[in-house]
Write a structure and sequence with these properties.
Length: about 350
Amino acid sequence: MAGLAAVAGLAWTARDVPAQLGGRLAGRRAERAGRSPQFRDGIFHNLAGTRTMVADPGRNLLKELIFGKQKRRPGTAVPLLHPGGTPTGGDTDRELNVVWYGHASTLVEIEGRRVLLDPVWSDRCSPAAAVGPRRIHEPPVRLDELPPLDAILISHDHYDHLDMATVRGLLAHQSAPFVVPLGVGAHLDRWGVPEERIVELDWSEQHQVDGLTLTATPAQHFSGRGLRRDGTLWSSWVIAGAHRKVFYTGDSGYFDGYAAIGAEHGPFDVTLVQIGAYDRAWPSIHMFPEEAVAAHLDLRGGLFVPVHWATFNLALHDWSEPVDRLWAEAKARDVRLAVPRPGERVVVDDPPAVDGWWQAIA
């Protein structure tokens, strides 16, 4: 009986895994992917050759993960704020605000429009509800509390950026299109998103929505929700209105593509740059904080708002190390920086001073 109960429990835990894995390239989607300059030998590729893992002789990553002395969670609760409604007054045509909900999930309020980036509201970023990295803090707002959206942008299909439950929640509460890299639409299709709400783009392709131009730009990363890798494309994003511009890195290693993006699409009023989940074992697919500052400068960015930290424990560094290193590098290179609490609205033209709030709970 105990064995049967264990098997039943395992089956219950894994009941959503097949759906969580998403869809695969087929039919017209596969034909379109085959025409992409990034697609060769049945998979997508970076602009330059990269490795997701680098040999590190004498280092045992599993041992370090289990017995390492790094502090991967704060000592007390992460402070959460509720952003409330969109600010009223002022020049809406020039409006630009950022609300960081945690990890990479961010709302961009630009010229009266709202674009949501990589929303993940689930408790874990994993194909199974009972295992995998768990949130350090709760989402500062519920999904049904989000304001009406004009677009939902996805950078790539990893679980900490594309979440089935969140997608289905947004499908129920929002009418905005999902704008995604090539192939990611197969996942959305399997999860019930109507075809008319899926827009798939290759690098350098654009989509117009309500006066905004959304441009897929290169990133240096990889993709995959199961054993098969790189069956969908990964991307960074340019969000451009008539007067304001935003850049979001998605997940990426540092590469010379940032200078090219800055030259073609910049300057940017604000950059949202990945700073966490780095390690010397995978240096080409996640930026170190110092590299993130270099990318911001390459992009010709104005205000730097860090993302991809403080919410999910995905690497071996201390949970607060990324932002400590970032703050030091930003000061050394005279970069304008805002480090909001989850849920805090940053008015790009009048950002809050960096106050080290995370150090009080580290």
